[in-house]
Specification:
By secondary structure, this protein is of the alpha+beta class. It has 2 domains: 159 residues, 2-Layer Sandwich (Nucleotidyltransferase, domain 5); 46 residues, no CATH class. The chain is built from 5 helices and 11 strands; from the N terminus they run E-E-E-E-E-H-H-E-E-H-E-H-H-E-E-E. Strands 3, 4, 5, 6, 7 and 8 form a 6-stranded mixed sheet that branches. Strands 9-10-11 form a 3-stranded antiparallel sheet, covered by helices on one side. A two-stranded antiparallel sheet has the order 1-2. A hairpin with a 5-residue loop joins strand 9 and strand 10. Helix 2 runs parallel beside helix 3. It is globular.
């Protein structure tokens, strides 16, 4: 049972247990984190309750790498991969929760980034776009949980880069009233978040390297 807490603004916010799924540009697997969240904004607190990585089979990785290249990609294979990844993600969540003693029934929400197969927010011709596969609806069905996904396209629609995604998290968890801070997020592509002391949310600076 989620308990209620009072955020500093006076809003009532549920404590919630959330699963986060991330597959990066190395195409080597999916990271699974189970976190207990309380509050929101700069009143957010987080406790990591489980974490693990489920490696992709070599055959799956080869198919993904083949399908990010225009000369070797197949729309039918991409469509199948969209469904297959959702099943792999569901298995990864169940396995890591079981191994680390987290009850699936206690999970309130799943956030799934998916696997990026194309990202071009500012093409020379046409509309900007970003495509992540690993169907959220199929994942929701197989886990029996609400799933939130497709995080990048709203920013692309507004003319943004659709990346990086981490600055809001950095601001909420790591900003300081009296210290300037810089955070480096390492991955297949790294990104940097600059947090001047007491910076408001809309003045955070972040970029990919």
């Amino acid at each position: 049972m989620s308990r209620l807490s009072k955020h500093e603004t006076g809003a009532i916010v549920h404590d919630r247990k959330v699963v986060g799924l991330m597959s990066g540009t190395s195409f080597d697997g999916v990271d699974v984190a189970v976190v207990q969240l309380s509050g929101s904004g700069q009143g957010l607190t987080m406790d990591v309750q489980a974490f693990g990585t489920a490696p992709y089979p070599n055959s799956l990785r080869e198919r993904l790498l083949r399908n990010i290249e225009p000369d070797t990609s197949s729309i039918s294979d991409l469509s199948q991969l969209n469904a297959e990844l959702a099943l792999i993600y569901a298995d990864a969540v169940r396995s890591i929760c079981l191994d680390q003693g987290v009850s699936l029934e206690s999970i309130d929400l799943v956030g799934s980034h998916g696997q990026t197969v194309y990202h071009d927010p500012h093409p020379a011709l046409g509309a900007g776009s970003s495509l992540q596969i690993g169907d959220p609806s199929m994942l929701a069905h197989h886990l029996g949980k609400t799933v939130v996904g497709d995080f990048r396209t709203a920013d692309v629609a507004l003319g943004g880069e659709g990346a990086p995604l981490v600055p809001y998290f950095d601001w909420a968890l790591f900003s300081s009233i009296d210290e300037h801070r810089i955070l480096l997020n390492l991955g297949g592509m790294a990104n940097i978040t600059i947090l001047p002391a007491a910076t408001p949310r809309d003045q955070v600076v972040a970029f990919d390297t």
